[in-house]
From TrEMBL:
Residues that span the membrane, as ranges: 27-51, 58-75
A Gene Ontology term for the protein's cellular component: endoplasmic reticulum membrane
GO biological process, one term: triglyceride biosynthetic process
Lineage of the organism: Eukaryota, Sar, Stramenopiles, Ochrophyta, Bolidophyceae
Protein name: Acyltransferase
Amino acid sequence: MPTTKKTPESAWAAGSETPPSTPFSLLIGYSLQLSLVACWVGGFASPAFAFHWYKTKNSLALSVYAAVVASGYIFPSSYSGSPGLKDFYMRYIFLPFKASQRRFKHLPDKSNPGIVLYHPHGMFSWGFMNGGAYNNFYYKQGFQGLVAASLLHAPGFRLLFVKLLGGINSAEKDELVKKMKGKESFGLIPGGFHEATISYPGNSRVFLKRRKGFVKYALQHGFSLIPVYTYGESATYWNASGFLSLRWWFNDQKLPAILPFGRWWCPLLPRSVELNTIGGEPLKLPKIEKPTLNDVNIWHDAYMQHLARHFETHKKEFGGVEANNKLEIW
C-alpha cells in the first residue's frame, strides 16, 4: 500500500536570506525579474523576430541574434556556471515580492533519491526557482531542475540559465533515465505548459490527471515522489481564460499559450505577492522494473491524494490568498 516517510517537524530546511530592501536593491531585483521573463518570452518569439529581420535586411539585428544563439553553445559541457553570479541572482530576484520563502522537510540524496515535483507551473515558474531547482542555489543536497527541451534551447534562456547560471537540463526521456540510473535526484514541473494555461489569480489548480509518465519512471527505479507547492504562484499574473481546447493544442506542440499581465506599470513583471514554496513528505514507491498500467494508476492516484493532503496541511499557515481554497486537480 502507498506509504509516506515521516520526518520530524524540526527538519525544516530554509533558504538563505534576501538583502535589505532599498530603492537600489529593488531596481536590481526588478531588472533580474525582467531578464528571466524576457528570456522566456524572447526565446519563444525569437524565430519570428529573426524572420522579420531577414525579410527587412536588418543585418545588425541578425548579427546580434546569431551571437546570442551561438553564445549558448560555446561553453564546455563541464562548465556548471558561476557561483558568484548564482548567489547574486538568487539574493536579489525575489526581493520585489511582498515576501518569499522556501521550506523543505525532506531533501533527496543518493541513499534515498527522489523526484522533486513542483506545483503549480504558473506563468514563469517562480516557485521552481524559489525552491532551488535551478541547480542547488540553497541546499547542499543539490538536485537539478529539468525543463522542456523547447525552452532549454531558446537562445536567451539557454545562455543565462543553462550556461551562465549552470542550472537546468532537459526533461526528455534520455536525460530522465540517465539521472535515475545514477540515483541522481532532480526537480520537475509535471503540469508543464498545460498547467500554465489554466493558471488564474485566486485559484489553486494543477494539471495532473493525464500526467503519469513520471510515476512509471519512479516505479522502475524506486524513486520517491516529493511534492512541492508554491502558494502565491497563481497570483503573480493575471492570465486569459477560455479557448482551452485551442490553447491545449498549442501546449501539445510544446508551445506556451498564455497571456500574462503582472504589474500595471510593467505587465511582464510579477505582482508583489507572498511566494511560499513548501516541500512535503516523500511518497515512497516500491521498485517495479516492469510496472503494469494498473501499478502506474494506483501510485498516480496515491500521489494525487498525497499532494492534496500536502496542500491542505500547509494552506492556513503559508497559503495567503489560497488559504481557503481547495486544490483543483485537472
